[in-house]
Amino acid sequence: MLCPHCSHSFRAAQVDAQRGKGLDAQIQCPHCEAWLGRSAILMRLKILGFYLGLLMLVLGYFLPDWRNLTTPVAIFAVMILLVSHMMDHLKVIQAPPRQEVDDSEQRQKYR
């Protein structure tokens, strides 16, 4: 996975902290400690598109009289699946607090 806050790559096994359950689960980046999550609406659309497309393809295969209805619905469901998959990325839910660094001594050096 790639953290959108610090741009570091990490594995799922490196994640120590997790909060929430199901589609609203959030993980904490092991490098910058930012909380990351996905959009629950896009995840639901992705699941709906997959199962609706699969159901329509199976119905169209076994019930040839229904193919005029099931084919366009299956195409539309797969389009929803692909678009929601492309839009579904990790996003920063809660950024870590910024640490104030006193660099006045460094600034005085170059004045």
Summarize this, please?
The chain is of the alpha+beta class and 111 residues long. It contains three helices and four strands. The chain has helices at 40-62, 67-87, 104-109, and strands spanning 18-19, 26-28, 35-37, 91-94.
What do these coordinates show?
The chain has one domain (12-96). The chain is 45% helix and 11% strand. It is built from 3 helices and 4 strands. It has helices spanning 40-62, 67-87, 104-109, and strands at residues 18-19, 26-28, 35-37, 91-94. It has a 4-stranded antiparallel sheet with strand order 1-2-3-4, with no helix packed on it. Strand 2 (26-28) and strand 3 (35-37) form a beta hairpin. Helix 1 runs antiparallel to helix 2 (67-87). The longest helix is centred in the middle third of the chain and has 23 residues, at 40-62. The protein starts with 17 loop residues before the first strand and ends with a helix. The model has no long low-confidence stretch (mean pLDDT 90).
Major sheet attributes: 4 strands, antiparallel
- Helix percent reads 40-55%
Taking strands numbered 1, 2, ... along the chain, how are they ordered across the largest sheet?
1-2-3-4
Distance between the termini: 43 Å
Radius of gyration: 23 Å
Beta strand count: 4
Task: Compile the SSE list and pairings.
Blueprint: E1 18-19, E2 26-28, E3 35-37, H1 40-62, H2 67-87, E4 91-94, H3 104-109
Antiparallel strand pairs: 1-2, 2-3, 3-4
Helix pairs in contact: 1-2
Which descriptors would you attach to this protein?
alpha+beta, 3 helices, 4 strands, 11% strand
